[in-house]
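In the design runs reported in the main text, the only information available to the sequence generator was the tokenized backbone. The following block is the verbatim input for one such run; it is reproduced so that readers can re-run the procedure and compare outputs position by position.
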């Protein structure tokens, strides 16, 4: 049967999807690249929350300066 790698879209001929060493990807490179894409996406989403947290902590410190 023909199998298409979900990452690089390369068509490969395999006996069965289970026969692929890096199911469902055609190679380890595609597997790691896809995994890295997911991790990077999570990192980008969580970063703005950190910056907002820092700015909130800065404000009360500014108000307590006259004391
Ligand atoms: Zn691939």
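Verbatim output:
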């Amino acid at each position: 049967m023909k199998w298409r790698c979900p990452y690089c879209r390369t068509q490969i001929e395999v006996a069965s999807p289970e026969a692929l060493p890096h199911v469902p990807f055609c190679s380890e490179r595609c597997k790691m690249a896809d995994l890295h894409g997911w991790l990077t996406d999570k990192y980008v989403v969580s970063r703005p929350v950190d910056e907002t947290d820092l700015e909130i902590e800065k404000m009360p410190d500014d108000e307590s300066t006259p004391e």
